[in-house]
Amino acid sequence: GEELKKLIGAPYYIECSSKSQQNVKGVFDAAIKVVLQPPKQKKNKKKKAQKGGCSIL
User: Fold this and answer.
1) What is the pTM of this model?
2) Range of 6's domain?
């Protein structure tokens, strides 16, 4: 999970279980936080093409 987070540049990696409802609220709380208060982007000298999108797995 952490490796995928770094690969896609996601601000958070949060494990959850829809079966047991463990941490499902935390996932949505984090998603809302990112939308309302996006993390500051690190400035790179090279511009990278953004792939964009949001993935909730």
Assistant:
1) 0.58
2) 2-36
